Amino acid sequence: MASPIDNTVIESDTDARRPDTTLAMIVYALLLGVFVTGITPVIGVIIAYVYRGNGPRWLDEHYRYHIRTFWIGLLYACISWVLAFVLIGFVLMALQAVWLIVRCVIGFKALQERRAPDKVDSWLW
């Protein structure tokens, strides 16, 4: 009788210790989803609040970066909407869109390099 085939995958020690960055990537995508649906950043910030503190320090900094991006972006959006009555708000809305895209790209790039984003406490980038 033939022996059964063993399909067990053995992970190396380095692979077993690597944290899963999928949720952090999804949160960046949800933050950028504001341009499509408008509600996805709320889902993203909830995920960030739930999962912060569960991984290594550099990954927790990404969740902190997500949370700060959400709240700072919301503040900038409110200011832009108020100033839209004076017509300068429309320019600020365009600048806010650029700010959000750049901030998410910087964070995503740092996530791919498995390091914390630079200047997490910054209000700009």
From TrEMBL:
TM region(s), chain numbering: 26-51, 71-102
Keywords: Membrane, Transmembrane, Transmembrane helix
Keyword Membrane: yes
Recorded topology in the membrane: Multi-pass membrane protein
Family annotation (InterPro entries): MamF_MmsF
One Pfam short name: MamF_MmsF
Subcellular location: Membrane
Record protein name field: DUF4870 domain-containing protein
Species of origin: Salinicola acroporae
